[in-house]
Design brief:
This protein is α+β, with helices and mostly antiparallel strands. It starts with a helix and ends with a helix. About 30% of the residues lie in helices and about 15% in strands. Strands 2-1-15-14-13-12-11 form a 7-stranded antiparallel beta sheet, with helices on both faces. The protein is built from 10 helices and 16 strands.
């Protein structure tokens, strides 16, 4: 099919031009896999070639998995969307809001006006932020001596809120707390829960928090974009993690993550298993935050992220697992499409109206890399062109 050849051409051109070191991309409709391709190298210096079973750090694409786990427990009555989450997590029973700093640089905190709920956490409206997009939190971490997020220490979750629950949208550590809630009510570690209730039923044999020796041998090297646009492989220190990060800890392959996306596309059913009820999947895909704007995520750590505005001019809301496009996008996705990404420039979308889903994976810092985002758009447009000509 000519349109699918166009996807090959776009991906191979970007890899050959060293716009990305390597890339794996897949798309599927309700009837099956539409496209699968791998181009470029896992490591620009040492190789080897990128393969379809290459393993990627999917970072915040973990969030959708954690959200599905939480909604499974909502279906079972073990979690409630709108009761105070402090009943499950006493650590969040009396949240504090950061109001600024006094003249000596000490943080000023006050009690939050209302309790945090699971719905707040799932929609990033609880009040939590991330240091990399909030300079006030960088200042708070420095003033208090608490560890920074990338250390993997459990104490990183002790950040204060930066606004009262329900009053704004800000991307933050919310889904790490959801992961803690899943562990608390399920009575097992997050990796064990994921494996039993999500990965095994979907046949996701290459997804987890700790890679096997075989998976480690297929792990893609992270590259950093230099000021001149060049890419250089870097060594990612693997900290001793004190908790499984529901907000960003998973490793996976394109094939595995596509199985997860296809489950949501199929209204909770895939591979002979039902992970969620259709009405739950529909709820996940509905905007839950009204007219609260997402805005542009302004970087406070340019070494980790550029400013983030993935869909310029397109109004977006947030469901219970992902951002939701409120309008049709120029690349072809419908209004009501679910989408999100991972720090190392991995991206996905699920379009329930046109019955298509896709994922594209690279390993580049900083996030929202211009070349990676451009290639994502080209891939998406080519997928929709292929649907038209099918």
């Amino acid at each position: 099919m000519r349109a699918l050849a166009g996807i090959d051409a776009a991906l191979s051109r970007a890899a050959e031009a060293k716009e990305v070191p390597g890339v794996v991309a897949l798309a599927a409709t309700e009837t099956g896999v539409l496209y699968e391709g791998a181009f470029g190298l896992r490591d620009l210096v040492d190789g080897p070639a990128m393969t379809r079973d290459s393993v990627f750090r999917i970072a915040s694409m973990t969030k959708a998995v954690t959200s599905v786990a939480a909604m499974q427990l909502v279906e079972q009555g073990k979690l409630q969307l709108d009761e105070p989450i402090g009943r499950v997590l006493p650590e969040l029973a009396a949240p504090q809001v950061l109001e600024g700093f006094n003249s000596s640089g000490a943080p000023r905190l006050r009690p939050a006006k209302r309790p945090i709920t699971l719905r707040h956490l799932l929609t990033h409206t609880a009040g939590f932020g991330y240091e990399m997009w909030n300079a006030e939190l960088i200042r708070y971490v420095a003033a208090t001596g608490m560890p920074s997020l990338m250390t993997g220490k459990l104490a990183v979750l002790q950040l204060p809120l930066v606004f009262d629950p329900g009053e704004r949208w800000e991307y933050g550590i919310n889904i790490d707390w959801v992961g803690r809630a899943v562990e608390r009510v399920a009575g097992q570690p997050l990796d064990t829960y994921f494996s039993a209730h999500i990965f095994a039923p979907l046949g996701m044999t290459d997804t987890g928090f700790v890679p096997s020796a075989d998976q480690a041998s297929r792990l893609v090297r992270v590259h950093r974009r230099g000021p001149d646009g060049s890419l250089e492989p870097i060594t990612m220190e693997t900290p001793h993690r004190e908790f499984f990060s529901g907000g960003g800890g998973l490793l996976s392959t394109g094939r595995d993550y596509l199985a997860f996306l296809r489950m949501l596309l199929h209204q909770g059913r895939f591979n002979g298993a039902e992970l969620l009820r259709p009405e739950t999947v529909a709820l996940i895909g509905q905007n839950q935050i009204g007219n609260l704007p997402l805005g542009i995520m302004k970087t406070a750590m340019p070494e980790l992220s550029n400013d983030v505005d993935l869909f310029p001019g397109v109004r977006c809301g947030h469901g219970l697992a992902s951002v939701v496009n409120a309008q049709q996008s120029p690349n072809g996705r419908s209004a009501g499409t679910l989408t999100w990404a991972g720090l190392f420039n991995t991206y996905y979308w699920i379009d329930p109206q046109k019955h298509v889903t896709g994922v594209i994976l690279t390993q580049i810092l900083p996030f929202a890399d211009h070349h990676a985002v451009k290639l994502y758009g080209e891939f998406e447009s080519a997928v929709y062109d292929a649907l038209k000509s099918a």
